[in-house]
Design brief:
This is Sperm-associated antigen 6. By secondary structure, the protein is mostly helical. Among the domains are: 156 residues, Leucine-rich Repeat Variant (Alpha Horseshoe); 85 residues, no CATH class. It is built from 33 helices and no strands.
């Protein structure tokens, strides 16, 4: 090697080239990881092994890009997130969390959130690594975005279960979250309110004890719709838990702004306000009476006329809770002209709430109430066009009530029997799997007895195959065309030809 090649300048150039290559690689992986379709290919190429040393690289930019790349990979794929826990990438990141600048902290907290989001198991593993202590320390950081990412991570960990939410609360995070919510930055307020929602779903008493109600109510004065929605959702999560917490929410001044925001121009805000009112009135006659006395029926009835935005369901439930508390409150709901609005909803074929029971996004309570309403309504319904769509869409637990009504209609209505066949309803009930001795099977037998046996067989599954089998097994009975005696018509033809 020549003397010029071994000079300090050239030696430094080698290291600079190596650092530039590491940075280029980390940046490229971070860019590729933005697309979920690339994750499997990157994982197969062994990207995690290559990223592991880079998360503690001597160059700050390389470190940050490597952690961001790891976070994006973990965010898209649960298996990759698990590998990061098992392979030590998160442990290395946590060890370096307070050694480097705020940019590294932001990226590290993003990685924690990306892993914790998937399920309770991964979130529990993160907690066992002592992550909460590091997050609490970041909540006290001066940088706003560090606090945002820390609050976000707390919400993603605590949302999975009561146990994890309890560990987040026990780490002393709630006072810090309440303080962060009072900061002037809108994005920090939004994320903190979201974290309070996640924790209030499992630990509402702790959220109230942290003195959050009054601050959340004051947060509704802000004009940002996203912040209003998150704040109303946090208050709703507290109020829904039990009557004492609903009373604490009302005592904190949440009722007047909830009624005001029921008429907000943003649909998500209106829905959140309706949910809060629903979760207040559901508990007791006193709270329902208070909402009525404050003028709550009018805004709720107005929400029933909406065609989108999702506010109609919680508004309808809120009115139902109010009316169910007493005759006097039921009359107040009637006087607020709720009945015409409810009738219009039932008559609207395009109402999005028609499939509440089968919608996987519906909560358990909504499904239970939808099922109860369907049962009660079906037991009074003898209108065939209303019953017919349910034959094809209703689950078994609802279908038996539909067939019970058909069993009442068909024996006495010839036209209904004809339509039952022509619309494919008879064929549909033959396809239903039933167990002998059940009410569903009995109703099907009653309906089948209203039709000729050959019609029922014709629409039974497998009947076409039976007919084809009979065709194959059939021996043709062909009459003799020619005998010793010539038919008379043939004789006349022969005479004419001759």
């Amino acid at each position: 090697m020549s003397h010029s090649m071994s000079s300090p300048k050239n030696i430094q150039l080698v290291f600079d080239t190596y650092q530039k290559a590491r940075l280029t690689f980390a940046q490229a992986i971070a860019d590729l990881a933005t697309r979920s379709t690339n994750v499997k290919c990157l994982d197969s190429a062994g990207v995690l092994e290559l990223l592991r040393p880079l998360v503690s690289d001597a160059c700050s930019t390389v470190r940050q890009c490597a952690v961001v790349a790891a976070a994006r990979l973990a965010e898209h794929d649960e298996a990759v997130a698990r590998q990061m826990l098992d392979g030590g990438i998160l442990t290395t990141t946590l060890e370096n969390l307070h050694k480097f600048n705020v940019y590294y902290k932001r990226s590290a907290l993003y990685l924690i959130r990306a892993i914790a989001k998937h399920n309770e198991e991964l979130a529990s593993m993160i907690v066992r690594f002592g992550t909460l202590e590091h997050i609490v320390a970041c909540m006290e950081d001066f940088d706003t975005q560090v606090k945002e990412n820390a609050a976000w991570a707390l919400g993603y960990i605590g949302k999975h279960s009561e146990l994890l939410a309890g560990k987040v609360v026990d780490a002393g995070t709630l006072p810090l979250l309440v303080l962060a919510f009072q900061e002037p930055e809108i994005s920090l307020k939004q994320i903190t309110a979201g974290a309070l929602v996640d924790l209030a779903k499992h630990k509402p008493e702790a959220v109230v004890d942290a003195g959050s109600i009054c601050h959340l109510v004051r947060g509704l004065d802000n004009q940002d719709p996203k912040l209003k929605r998150s704040t109303l959702c946090a208050l709703s999560a507290v109020a829904s838990a039990r009557v004492e917490l609903a009373e604490a929410t009302v005592a904190g001044g949440a009722l007047p702004p909830a009624l005001l925001h029921a008429a907000h121009h943003a649909a998500p805000v209106r829905r959140a306000a309706a949910c809060l009112l629903r979760d207040i009135v559901r508990h007791s006659i006193d709270l329902a009476q208070l909402v009525v006395n404050t003028g709550g029926c009018g805004p709720l009835v107005e929400l029933l006329s909406e065609n989108g935005g999702g506010a109609r369901v919680p508004a309808c439930m809120a009115l139902g809770f109010i009316a169910g508390q007493s005759d006097q409150l039921a009359m107040a709901v009637i006087e607020a002209k709720a009945i015409p609005a409810l009738v219009e909803i039932l008559q609207n074929d395009e109402a999005e709430e028609a499939e509440l029971y089968t919608n996987p996004k519906s909560s358990g309570e909504v499904r239970a109430r939808a099922l109860c309403c369907l049962k009660q309504a079906l037991q009074c319904c003898l209108h065939r066009p209303a019953l017919e769509p349910l034959l094809h869409a209703a689950p078994a637990c609802v279908l038996k009530y539909v067939l019970a009504q058909y069993a009442k209609i068909l024996p006495n209505d010839a036209r209904a029997r004809r339509l039952f066949v022509s619309t494919g309803a008879l064929k549909r009930i033959q396809e239903i799997d039933t167990v002998p001795g059940t009410s569903l099977k009995e109703y099907i037998n009653i309906i089948n007895s209203c039709f000729p046996e050959e019609i029922v067989r014709y629409y039974s599954p497998g009947y076409s195959e039976t007919l084809l089998d009979r065709v194959e097994a059939y021996t043709p009975q062909i009459p003799e065309l020619f005998t010793d005696r010539v038919p008379s018509d043939c004789q006349s033809e022969l005479t004419l030809e001759n």
